[in-house]
Specification:
alpha+beta, Pdz3 Domain, four-stranded mixed beta sheet, four-stranded antiparallel beta sheet, 20% strand
């Protein structure tokens, strides 16, 4: 019990450290650029809320807030940001004017530092490796009986080449995956080109969307297929049936009740036939066979699948080069934003994650034995997304500051301070409202999430 509490606290500390690193490096870019260009910097804050420590050095107040999430740099000459950073110490009217070019350089420095951190982390991933699941190949391993894919004629063993004409490399990972292309589809049917018995054929399939509660994210399209899941163990949930039985990450399930197992779909009938009993299983671990006993709960009236607490599919290390990592991360956010603004897409703003959702993902990542490798790879994506989203021409964001500076340069005179205050405050309130909107769904995921189950379908 004490060990679990300590492990929980340690993982929370890891999440806080890496999440704050991403934000602080971004703000450090603004700070250094502002000092370089001679702008007045009033505050450099790590974390928000009431300061628990502060000290003024060289006219800059350095502070540590009481809410461990991010930070900010108060640069009153750039744009009025009182809605987010509090009242400025000096009136903007008493500050010397700043050239539009200086404003652009200071605003662009934050995203530039985020890109730089992404590249550094991508180099580390290139060296230490990135875990990739053995199931992340576009081969169908499960087709729900009576589901849209089953009715269309898709079969277990089909290798999916493309979805709606878009080539796919993975089943569930990234925006070049089968799952994403199903979600991103816009027609009444989804065209699957599959390789079957040496031939490529195209099969149009219908789709469905499950019902969800009002407090959960809107459902997305699915055709009710799943990846081929070899009986390798990728992750075991603490306290689950598998954990209690002694199953460990990296094991390969070889036999169940004396019957050799080569694919997960062979396990289901054995589980159903032994509800309320136990299974004699053998796993291969470090080249040796280990016999174990896996207890099974009794059958339920709704025939709900047994939740073993296993994420199937062992992982191997891959070493993608930094340019590929950064490019793929940029591609993913472009595709997400494109889907958001497409009138025929089912992707909505509610499907994005806010700070709570991102920290929850980091927590789940750090629970894995390859936590730091996965966290580095995920941080490349987050840094690139942070940089690109901040470059959007929306006031309050860095792209908004750049846009206002360009307008000021074209007009050859500063924008009216009162107008700037109204625009910045209004947009800050919109941004805060949007963050609260995302947090609502993030919290819903936090309390409504379920551990992985044996059967997965998309």
């Amino acid at each position: 019990m004490v060990f679990d509490i300590l492990k929980f606290l340690f993982i929370c500390l890891e999440v806080v450290l890496i999440f704050n690193l991403l934000i602080i490096v971004h703000e450090l870019g603004h700070f250094l650029a502002a000092k370089w260009r001679g702008l007045v910097v009033e505050k450099f804050a790590i974390w928000f809320g009431k300061p628990i420590w502060k000290k003024t050095i060289g006219g800059v107040e350095y502070r540590l807030g009481s809410i461990p999430a991010g930070g900010f740099v108060a640069i009153p000459q750039l744009a009025p940001m009182e809605a987010l950073e509090g009242k400025v110490e000096q009136s903007r009217k008493n500050l010397p004017p700043v050239k539009p070019l200086d404003k652009i350089l200071v605003a662009a420095a934050g995203p530039l530092f985020s890109f730089g951190l992404a590249f550094v982390m991508a180099c580390l991933v290139w060296v230490v490796g990135k875990p990739q699941s053995e199931i992340d190949v576009p081969t169908i391993g499960f087709v729900k009986a009576g589901g849209p894919a089953d009715q269309a004629g898709l079969r277990v063993g089909d290798v999916i080449v493309s979805v709606d004409g878009h080539p796919v490399k993975h089943f569930v990972g990234g925006t070049d995956s089968v799952k994403w292309r199903i979600i991103r589809s816009e027609g009444e049917t989804i065209a699957f080109t599959v390789r079957r018995e040496g031939q490529e054929i195209t099969i149009p399939s219908g789709w469905t969307k499950p019902k969800t509660s009002n407090w959960r994210r809107p459902a997305l399209r699915e055709v009710q297929i799943g990846p081929r899941l070899t009986p390798g163990i990728g992750f075991v949930v603490r306290g689950s049936l598998a954990d209690q039985a002694g199953i460990r990450s990296g094991d390969l399930l070889t036999t169940v009740n004396g019957q050799p197992i080569f694919n997960l779909d062979e396990i289901g009938p054995l589980v159903d036939a032994n509800r309320g009993k136990s299974l004699a299983i053998v796993v291969e671990r470090n080249g040796a066979e280990v016999p174990l006993t896996l207890p099974l709960p009794p059958a339920t009236p709704d025939a709900k699948p047994v939740n073993f607490g296993i994420e199937w599919g062992r992982t191997t290390l891959v070493y993608p080069d930094p340019i590929t990592q950064v490019r793929d991360s940029a591609t993913s956010i472009f595709r997400m934003v494109g889907a958001l603004f497409s009138p025929k897409s089912d992707v909505k703003a509610a499907h994005f994650s806010g700070p709570v959702g991102i920290m929850r993902l980091y927590y789940q990542i750090f629970e894995n034995e390859n936590g730091w490798r996965l966290a580095l790879a995920f941080s490349v994506l987050i840094n690139v997304n942070l940089a690109l989203l901040n470059l959007l021409p929306f006031p309050v964001l860095d792209g908004g500051h750049i846009t206002l500076a360009i307008i000021e340069g074209i007009r050859r005179k500063p924008i009216n301070v009162r107008v700037l205050e109204i625009v910045q405050t209004g947009c800050a309130l919109l941004l805060i409202s949007f963050m609260l909107y995302l947090t609502f769904y993030d919290v819903g995921d936090l309390f409504g999430s379920k551990p992985p189950v044996a059967e997965k379908s998309e």
